[in-house]
């Protein structure tokens, strides 16, 4: 009917507009048909008003800026084709919220993005600074943008830390709060912690698992090793075992 035809026409115009946009030229491979659909839905639902430039091109996902009204937001788009589904599926294991999708390819990515959204919500509720989750659609996550004066907020690995002892205590407290709320980050390091207005934020929680995951203790141990090693290099007297003990016994 007429309305459906109008909708189809609007969608194809939208898709052409995105395909032509300069910022997406280099990374066109991100976008399969269904991803255009997801972006279109996010625009229709008022979560995205204009697309900005790329912030990061990672192994599994690209991150872009966008405008939502006059607020800047971050849009993380998982590449369905590039993603290692089997590996991703393993991170859904033992999580009662997502277990049923762990075997199915497309469902795994969609489940993964929803898990990232849910983990951001849970981390926030637990008192851990993370980007505020805004919307999720298929393989696309919209969240609060963390910025600095000259672009995206810097990773902990990119800044010189004024007071490493205090920063370490903050990260330790975050790890404890996450664990207390039943989640383990699973990829925590100076690359997944960013600094905005002197505050530390944890990012990239897609792979975070619940403590019911069969490997959650191994992941926690690895996180502790990575975080402690980083702060040790900054002059803090700690190691992975001490950090792990703190999280277990606090
Ligand atoms: P990588 O494989 O590079 O770790 P990733 O797929 O794990 O990428 P993220 O770590 O979530 O994805 O994001 C990649 C980079 O994009 C981050 O290191 C950070 O610099 C930037 N970034 C992610 N989310 C945001 C955000 N909400 N605000 C500002 N910058 C962000
Ligand atoms: Mn990351």
UniProtKB/TrEMBL annotation:
It catalyses: L-seryl-[protein] + ATP = O-phospho-L-seryl-[protein] + ADP + H(+); L-threonyl-[protein] + ATP = O-phospho-L-threonyl-[protein] + ADP + H(+). InterPro entries: Kinase-like_dom_sf, Prot_kinase_dom, RIO-type_Ser/Thr_kinase, RIO1_kinase, RIO_dom, RIO_kinase, RIO_kinase_CS, Tyr_kinase_AS. Its EC number is 2.7.11.1. Pfam families: RIO1. Residues 49-250 form the Protein kinase domain. CDD domains: RIO1_like (cd05145). This is non-specific serine/threonine protein kinase. Belongs to the protein kinase superfamily. RIO-type Ser/Thr kinase family. It comes from Halovenus carboxidivorans. It is an enzyme of class 2 (transferase). It comes from the Archaea. Keywords: ATP-binding, Kinase, Magnesium, Metal-binding, Nucleotide-binding, Serine/threonine-protein kinase, Transferase. Signal peptide: none annotated. One of its GO terms (molecular function) is metal ion binding. The keyword RNA-binding does not apply.
């Amino acid at each position: 009917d007429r309305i459906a035809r109008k909708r189809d026409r609007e969608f194809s115009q939208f898709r052409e507009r995105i395909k032509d946009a300069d910022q997406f030229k280099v990374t066109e491979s991100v976008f399969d048909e269904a991803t255009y659909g997801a972006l279109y839905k996010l625009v229709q639902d008022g979560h995205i008003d204009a697309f900005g430039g790329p912030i990061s091109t990672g192994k599994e996902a690209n991150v872009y800026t966008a405008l939502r009204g006059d607020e800047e937001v971050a849009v993380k788009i998982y590449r369905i084709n590039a993603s290692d589904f089997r590996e991703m599926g393993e991170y859904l294991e033992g999580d009662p919220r997502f277990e049923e999708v762990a075997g199915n390819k497309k469902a795994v990515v969609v489940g993964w993005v929803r898990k990232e959204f849910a983990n951001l919500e849970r981390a926030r509720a637990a008192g851990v600074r993370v980007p505020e989750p805004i919307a999720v659609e298929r393989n696309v996550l919209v969240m609060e943008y963390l910025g600095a004066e000259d672009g995206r907020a810097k990773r902990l690995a990119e800044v010189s830390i004024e007071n490493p002892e205090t920063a370490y205590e903050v990260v330790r407290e975050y790890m404890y709060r996450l664990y207390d709320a039943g989640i383990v980050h699973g990829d925590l390091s100076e690359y997944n912690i960013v600094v905005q207005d002197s505050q530390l934020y944890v990012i990239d929680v897609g792979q975070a698992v619940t403590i019911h995951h069969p490997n959650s203790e191994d992941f926690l141990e690895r996180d502790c090793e990575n975080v402690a090693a980083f702060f040790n290099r900054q002059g803090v007297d700690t190691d992975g075992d001490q950090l792990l003990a703190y999280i277990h016994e606090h």
